[in-house]
Amino acid sequence: MTDGRTTGSARAFELLEPLVQAATVRVHAPAGGYENPRSHRTGPTWGSGFFIAPGWVLTCAHVVGEGGAAVRLTGREVGITFSAGSLTGTVTGRVECVLPERLEERRPGRHALWDLPDLALVRVLAPVSHACVRLTDRSRPRFDEVAYFGCTEDLGTPEITGRTTRLRGTAGNGAAIRLGDDDEIEPGMSGGPVVDLARGEVVGVLKARRQSGGGGLAVSVVQLRTLPMAARGQVGLYRRIMQAHDLYHYDQHLSDLDNRRTWTDVHGELPPEEGDPYAGRGRLTPGERTTLCGLLAELPPPGSSEVVRALVEAARGEEPDPLPPAPLSWRDGLGLLHDPPGGTGEAAAMLRYATDVSVAEYREPVTPGADEELWDWVRATAERLWRPLRRELGERRERGLADRERRRRAPAGRAVHGSARRAGGLPSGASVLLEVWAHGWEDVYDWRVSVLAGPAHAGRVTPVDSGVRLTLAGLPEALRVPLAEGFRRCDTHEAAALLEVAVAPELFGLAVDAWVVVGGVPLGVQRPVVLRHPAGASQGGPNPGGAREHPADRECADAAARWARVQAGPLQDERADCAGGRPRTPATEWLTGLPDNTVPVHCRAADQEPTLGSLHAVRDAGYGVAVTRRPPPEPGASCAPFHRGLREELADAGRAEVLPLRFQTLRGRAYGADPDAYWATGAGLVWEDPARPLPEEEPLQGDL
Q1: pLDDT 10s digits, 640-699
Q2: DSSP labels for 642-696?
Q3: Mean pLDDT score, 147-156
């Protein structure tokens, strides 16, 4: 050991220290009105940060929140002092966003830990020349020696210093990294970078130290993927910043204007890892990795997270790590290709992935020649590794080009391997599935959030998160993060993914469409939300007797005919639980005798009779589309406006396949204070799509 470091890590620290210090900044009060002569007229130090891309500083939210709960975070101006060669410069920055978003609404008290991930992005308000760190692309950190950097005032003058320790594990479901107590974390270092010394990459943002002074906590930089998603048709902040990050290092690698070491140069000088099974030709060289990331950054971003995961699975030979956060950029896919299974070379897996990316469907026109440049690089690199790989990749590319051409020639709105989808219908891709179960006879509930694959992979479910024993009132807050992760995985450039809520009929009144997850806007306004009966669940209620067969899982000619007929329209509404404003219980014979294009309508509380019994009966009669409603707060309010407005809406829609999106539009109009849409408040759409079968099993309810 040398100063607490192994010989290899001591050399790595020596190589990396100047690069990290050049990109690390002091965050303080802005100049003008906050001047403090004792702090070099730049205001008192609040913490540290570091440049991750030209013009962008990453720090902790609690650093820019200096001043208490009354301070608004987003839009706040801060001072940024950084090194530019032998000079020190100060510039004003503006907080662009903080994570989690709810910190704007609710913050902890003084000296308390802020909620994870506790990150803030600061945009510099003037063009300045500065260095940037190199961020990891790995979803999980390796538990090796690390260095952390930040602003200290040991000798009475602010300066950027570095210390070393080891990673000791993770916390917060992987959002945070535990740091060992090998060295002290001082006040002012919060927001500084944590660098993996073995690989020369920034893996975390320093967040807190233990009260005893030994060890602390850092936030994984992978949490940047939880930045707010972009509006449809726009490139999100995360993708913009990571593109700028990769192009910065690519340009530095190619430039010959000076002879200063770049991050890529230093990566090539780092001591080799002991026992690395992919050393030598098994891994890309640092220069090749930098070039590949730069070429990927030249391409338009992927249309969705699922596109990245599918290409990673094809290149890796197995499904990638399902743990959050979801991969959002092409470079994130590279991070899922480290250490592939079965002894497959890491370099080969990355080249297969790059080949598939070069022939992928991009969400916007590609810069002329960018995809060809990527392929030329892949082919040349494959020849350096081993020539047979070049032939394999050439055949892979030819298949990819043929598949892409076939997709482009397919008629508009028609999937290559599926039926036509008319305009206004739901996208055929993955959806987010929320399941909630009653926990026995108690008033607590178990839940699960999953990604439900589209019709092309019917029945395929990827778990996101689950939990047990929550009250209904506690569900919205507990599900905020899991649902946001599910949406990141499923949302595409063209459309927000469908949210399917599978609950027993007595929970159809659960106001999921009114929950706020991200962006400050209710879910039902942001995306289509539908209700579903749980698959194979015991229903109880008016028809007890065990599990019921799910319409999507049985071969029922009547149910299939009803689904196909109602999708095509025209639509006919029928009041199921009331007649002239008075409650009624529909007879089974009456329900089964209605035309196949009927949409049964319920206007009363789903957890009370006769509506609960009607919902069961409607399901048993094979209706895949029905309407329900949360009753208005006034018990005596007439249901006539609801039925009248819904009849007009169904007549205007013409066919059921457009209803999920039309209900979303109605919720948006009501949210935007359109009086003509107030009747739709609380309306829910029951949507039993046979092409989207639900998982059968329920979550475990704990030890007996």
Answers
A1: 999 999 999 999 999 999 999 999 999 999 999 999 999 999 999 999 999 899 987 654
A2: HHHHHHHHHHHH-SGGGHHHHHHHHHHHHHTT-GGGGGGTTEEEEE--TTSPPP-
A3: 86
Prior bond to 18 cis, omega within 30? no
Report the length, in residues, of the chain. 704
The pairing of strands 499-502 and 529-532 is parallel
H or E element in which residue 12 lies: helix 7-23
| Distance of alpha carbon 180 from alpha carbon 560, whole angstroms | 60
pTM comes to 0.85
Cβ-proximal residues to 399 (8 Å cutoff; 6+ apart), any chain? none
Distance of CA 645 to the CA centre of its chain: 36
Is the model more confident about 552 or about 104?
104
Q: Rounded distance, CA 311 to CA 300, Å? A: 16
Confidence of residue 414 (pLDDT cuts 50, 70, 90): very low
CB 663 within 8 A of CB 528: yes
Hunting for tokens 């639509």 — which residue is that? Answer: 571
Q: How far is CA 293 from CA 369, 389, 447, 700, in A?
A: 16, 20, 39, 42
What's residue 49's pLDDT? 97
- Buried-exposed string 254-286: b where 16+ CB fall within 10 A, e elsewhere: eeeeeeeebbbbbbeebeeeeeeebeeebbbbb
Give the span between the Cα atoms of 569 and 567, in whole angstroms. 6
Please give the Cα distance from 341 to 318 (Å, whole number).
8
Instruction: Give the separation between CA 225 and CA 220, rounded to whole angstroms.
Output: 10
Sequential DSSP letters for 311-361: HHHHHHSSPPP-PSSPP-SHHHHHHT-SS-GGG--HHHHHHHHHHHHHTSP
HEC string for 428-466: CCCEEEEEEEECCCCCCEEEEEEEECCHHHCCCEEEEEE
46 near 29, Cβ under 8 Å? yes
Report the range of poorest mean pLDDT among 315-319, 352-356, 392-396, 556-560.
556-560
**What average pLDDT does the segment 199-205 reach?**
96
- State how far the alpha carbon of 560 is from the alpha carbons of 332, 551, 567, 598, 689, in Å: 41, 8, 11, 14, 10
DSSP code for 547: B
Which DSSP letter does residue 301 get? P
Q: If you ran DSSP here, which 8-state letter would residue 411 be given?
A: P
Quick: pLDDT tens for 123-149. Answer: 999 988 899 999 999 988 887 899 999
Contact 76, 95 (CB under 8 A): yes
Cα–Cα distance list, 11 to 166, 259, 269 (Å): 16, 20, 9
Q: What is the Cα–Cα distance from 375 to 381, expressed in whole angstroms?
A: 10
Buried b (16+ CB within 10 A) or exposed e, 54-77: bbbbbbbbbbbbbeeeeeebbebe
Residue 410, exposed/middle/buried by CB under 10 A (0-12, 13-18, 19+)? middle
Sign of the torsion formed by the C-alpha atoms of 83, 124, 16 and 171: positive
Q: Are 682 and 630 in contact (CB under 8 A)?
A: yes
Ramachandran quadrant class, 426 (left: phi over 0; alpha: psi -120 to 50; beta: rest): beta
- pLDDT mean across residues, the chain: 86
What are the tens digits of pLDDT across the range 41-81? 567 889 999 999 999 999 999 999 986 666 789 999 999 99
Q: Is 542 in a helix, a strand, or coil?
A: coil
Which of 274, 440, 255, 291 is CA-nearest to residue 378? Answer: 291
For residues 151 and 48, the answer to whether their CB atoms sit within 8 Å is yes
